[in-house]
Design goal:
- The chain is α/β, with parallel strands linked by helices.
- It folds into two domains: 175 residues, Thiolase/Chalcone synthase (Peroxisomal Thiolase, Chain A, domain 1); 138 residues, Peroxisomal Thiolase, Chain A, domain 1 (3-Layer(aba) Sandwich), CATH 3.40.47.
- The chain is 32% helix and 25% strand.
- The strands form four sheets. Strands 1-7-6-4-5 form a five-stranded mixed beta sheet, sandwiched between helices. The protein has a four-stranded mixed beta sheet with strand order 8-13-12-11, sandwiched between helices. The protein has a two-stranded antiparallel sheet with strand order 2-3.
- It is globular.
- The chain starts with a strand and ends in a 5-residue tail after the last strand.
- The protein binds oxa(dethia)-CoA.
Length: 331
């Protein structure tokens, strides 16, 4: 009996309607369209407006679309992994809320927080459940309402992030398709360079933490940039070498969308031409856990069965990694 592999059998996605342009940001902080575009590649990002709406409000659209596109009855789903850094609540898990909202009565669920590498961590984790043979349908959803933790007085962070979510279905296959390999890394020594200082158990909310704006994402941009450029490129190259993949073998690179310059450096290290590099950062900015599934959602129609796709990410924590997969269907 051949090995059971976990293959992606469908993609759903959603971004909120409101478009926050570079032009509008010019009226909020001291910045300009030219700086943002040349330093990051971002033109606009989506923002979820409305009171009382959390990440689940974005992610549920992606999950429902995924169920519809894959003709899946909600009760057939075994597990939902919600990769997010902006959960609706500290507890319970946003995954639980999504199961309830989508009617996934027979699924268990949990949240996974690996910041911008979260979707890759979720994909690796979800695929293990399939590969054991015990589970048949696993949803991995990656999404964030980054606008809920962004300080719109800090020009170094508010220009980068946006809101959005994507979801994929994992199912077993005996063909040579699906998740072929993955490499994940963590280095907690990098925590201080990109984090939310307060709101956790180390520094619970007080009037002072709120006044000092410590419940927003804080980033030492140039330090994170240096680590991101090196580690994302290295891990992408490492997964190619480990699997004997040349640049010609790779159909697409699906990189985390944090900064176009980091994406270009990764592609260059891999020797992959720009025509193979999937990019949508100009429209959505950095949606953290949402970037890679939103790329799959945007570009799904281009993919052919058997295409080799390499995904790579770097994020707060620090976390980073790469996944090599063979696309499992023609859209
Ligand atoms: O996704 C998770 C991981 N995150 C990342 O991978 C993000 C990594 N970091 C970055 O993408 C970049 O570091 C940023 C886009 C955040 C910043 O770009 P940078 O080229 O590293 O700029 P910098 O922080 O070194 O700042 C250069 C200058 C500074 O001015 P001075 O000190 O040289 O006078 C900043 O104050 O640019 C200034 N600056 C801005 N100017 C106009 C910073 N932000 C802005 C802005 N508009 N929005």
């Amino acid at each position: 009996m051949s090995k059971i592999r976990a293959s992606i059998t469908g993609v759903g996605g959603y971004v909120p309607d409101y478009i926050l342009t570079n032009k509008e940001l010019e009226s909020i902080v001291e910045t300009n369209d030219e700086w943002i575009l040349t330093r990051t590649g971002i033109k606009e990002r989506r923002i979820l407006k409305g009171e009382g709406l959390g990440t689940s409000h974005i992610a549920i659209h992606a999950v429902k679309q995924l169920l519809e596109k894959t003709n899946t009855k909600p009760e057939e789903v075994d597990l939902l992994i919600c990769c997010t850094t902006t959960p609706d609540y500290v507890f319970p898990a946003t995954g639980n809320l999504l199961c309830d909202m989508a009617g996934l009565k027979n699924a268990f669920s949990y949240d996974l927080n690996a910041a911008c590498s979260g979707f890759l961590y979720g994909l690796m984790t979800g695929s293990q459940f399939i590969e054991t043979g015990k589970y048949k349908k696993v949803i991995v959803v990656g999404g964030d309402k980054m606008s809920s933790i962004i300080n719109y007085q800090d020009r170094a962070t508010c220009i980068i992030f946006g809101d959005g979510a994507g979801a994929i279905m994992l199912e077993p296959t005996h063909e040579e398709l699906g998740i072929m390999d993955g490499i994940l890394h963590t280095d907690g020594a990098g925590a201080q360079f990109l984090f939310q200082k307060s709101g956790g158990s180390r520094s619970p909310a007080t009037i002072e933490t709120v006044t000092n704006r410590e419940h927003f994402a804080s980033q030492e941009g140039s330090t994170v940039f240096k680590f991101a450029v090196t580690n994302m490129a290295n891990v992408a190259k490492e997964i190619m070498e480990k699997n004997n993949l040349t640049a010609e073998d790779i159909a697409y690179l699906a990189p985390h969308q944090a900064n176009k310059r980091i994406i270009d450096a990764t592609a260059e290290r891999m020797g992959v031409g720009s025509e193979k590099v999937l990019v949508n950062i100009e429209r959505y900015g950095n949606t953290t856990n949402g970037t890679i599934p939103l790329l799959l959602w945007d570009y799904e129609k281009k993919f052919k069965k058997g295409d080799n796709i390499v995904m790579a990410a770097f994020g707060g924590g620090f976390t980073w990694g790469a996944i090599y997969l063979k696309w499992a269907y023609n859209s």
